[in-house]
Amino acid sequence: MWPCLVMSAALLVVLRRDLPRKHLHRLPSLNPITLRRLRVVYCVLSLRCTIMAGASLHPPTDPCANGERSGHAAVPSSDVGTGGEDAGIPVVDYDVLVNGAADQRAQAIRDLGRACEDWGFFMVINHGVPEDLKEAVMETCRELLLSLPAEEKAEYLEAGPMDPVRIGSGFYSVVDGARYWRDYFKMFVHPELLHCPAKPAKLRDVATEYAVKTRHLLLSLATAISESLGLDGDRVREAMDLESCFQILAANHYPPYAGPGDVGLGLPPHSDHGFLTLLFQNGVDGLQVEHDGRWVLATPLPGAFFVIAGDQMEIVSNGRYKSTLHRAVVGGERARMSMVSMISPCLDTVVEPVPELAQDGQGLEFRGIRYRDYMEHQQSNKLNGNAALDIARVQRDISGAENCD
Ligand code: OGA
Ligand code: NI
Prior knowledge:
Residues 1-16 form the signal peptide. It is a single chain. This protein is an alpha+beta fold. It has two domains: 2-52; 77-391, B-lactam Antibiotic, Isopenicillin N Synthase, Chain (Jelly Rolls, Sandwich). It has helices spanning 2-15, 21-25, 32-52, 94-99, 102-118, 131-147, 150-157, 173-176, 203-228, 235-239, 311-316, 371-380; strands at 74-75, 91-93, 121-125, 165-169, 183-190, 246-254, 263-270, 276-281, 287-291, 294-297, 305-309, 326-330, 336-344, 350-351, 369-370. The strands form three sheets. It has an eight-stranded mixed beta sheet with strand order 2-3-11-8-13-6-5-4. The chain has a five-stranded antiparallel beta sheet with strand order 1-7-12-9-10, with no helix packed on it. It has a two-stranded antiparallel ribbon with strand order 14-15. A hairpin with a 2-residue loop joins strand 9 and strand 10 (294-297). Helix 3 (32-52) crosses helix 7 (150-157). The model is unreliable at 4-71 (pLDDT under 50). The site of N-oxalylglycine has 11 residues, from strand 6, strand 12 and strand 13.
């Protein structure tokens, strides 16, 4: 039985290394156990092939076993932005935003609008998400990435961008060869948490609780952002069907980095495909955001979350609030971890700019695009800054006339 499985899986790997996992289900007349075994062998062989090809995909179970990821990306230390508490990153006090007196609230909304316009990035304090819940979700995801045996993770290793649970290295190893110094776990948590790895046993509960609390926070921020654009609080939420929003949780683990090059790149510059991303880290800095043409290292206030504007923010606001380019650098001896909770429009919503935000004489900057299509497009190609937005951007010629092709 096993030699036969190895042979079949090897054949699949040789024929088509990036064969999506779902195709394995289509193989005729295999019982589920054989299918599962075949999938494990296929994943292991795929990893071996990637390593032999020099791309060095590290299985996340053993993310830094020998300290090498050949062909990976690094940045010179001179390119690492300055940061620290005086970097000027805007701070939003959530408590004032929801409970403040009318004048305090109005001021907080104006400040939020300026943060979105100038940075597309801010910290949120007094957000009400308990510290012990943050710790629990990060610890559970660390256990999943670092302590679970390969067989437990195998079925998620070959997942594609639209699969509900995914474990991998780099950005998307099929397109980037896992050049980046990162292992990740991603899971769709809303509108349904249908698929959740069975281990660690507490993952489902802890992820659900964290998703509910962070979704509530992000939806309230969406209301305030809508007001900051001069719209009704509900307007932006309605435009994207955020009540049944699509939400992803992700954990990033960046192993310690020992060169070559000065600083390893964990994630290349990109903007997020969703509407708003909430992020916290394990006390090791590494997130950088682009601001006024420079990379700024983001150092959080104690307990704060970072909030990052995504591509849907740029589309729905008709370009008033841009999505923010950011990247993750890693370096030094300490492993870095970050937890991401991102809300996006409902997958079937066609996202387009709120018409009230059309600019005088210019009209709308973006055409409508179904969020599912946008996400698939951004996630299936190499990360390239915020270039994915171009598929939704209205092209104009020099005279400003709309180009219809
Ligand atoms: C991401 C991301 C940055 C970080 O997951 O999209 O940008 O600091 N992460 O981990
Ligand atoms: Ni990101």
